[in-house]
Amino acid sequence: MTTVASTTELDVLGALLAFDFIGFAQKSAALDPTEPQYGRAVGAAFGIAARRRFPQGATAEEVDGYVGEFLGSLEAGAEDFDPSALARLVADGLDADAERDDADPDPERTMQARLVLTLRWVRELGLGPDGQRELLAEAEGLLAA
Questions:
Q1: What values do phi and psi take at 44, rounded to 5?
Q2: How many CB atoms lie within 10 A of CB 77?
Q3: Residues in CB range of 50: below 8 A, 6 or more apart
Q4: Alpha-carbon distance 134 to 126, whole Å?
């Protein structure tokens, strides 16, 4: 079921993908990390992007290597991310049937990681505005199902 919070999350992601940082900041301010569904919409888009980025899946070693490369490519902020937590997020994103742990100990950090990785994958996949809209629509469709 698509909720106002889910729509707002997808708007936040859409603003980030479009490099609309003012819109991103404004829309992010409307998110409430204490809501039970917080992160669900971005999680759906993240999973879709992960499976597009790794269409054949990835071994634990490949995921760890990718995470290391990702963290090494950040000019700043790499220390904000725990490599093992990122690897778990990526592995979960690759598994469309994985049960998500609703008791995320740090939903804001998880949201941040998913946003940053989704942005990177969209760039790596070369998704332009149409591809980005398709990704967001597919995520919205997953939530509505």
A1: -65, -45
A2: 10
A3: 90, 93, 94, 117, 121
A4: 13
Q: Give the Cα separation of 20 and 70 in Å (integer).
A: 22
- Dump pLDDT digits (tens) for 79-110: 888 999 999 999 999 987 765 555 677 899 99
2-27 burial string, b = 16+ CB within 10 Å, else e?
A: beebbebbbbbbbbbbeeeeeebeeb
Specify the residue for token string 């490369």.
69
Longest dimension (CA), the chain: 39
Per the listing, tokens 């999973």 go with 47
pLDDT of residue 102: 54
From 14, 34, 39, 32, select the one nearest 24 (Cα to Cα): 14
Over residues 66-77, the pLDDT tens digits come to 999 999 888 787
Sorting pLDDT into bands at 50, 70 and 90, what band is 31? very high
Give the pLDDT mean for 51-68.
Answer: 94
Please name which of 82, 84, 100 lies closest in space to residue 42, comparing C-alpha atoms: 100
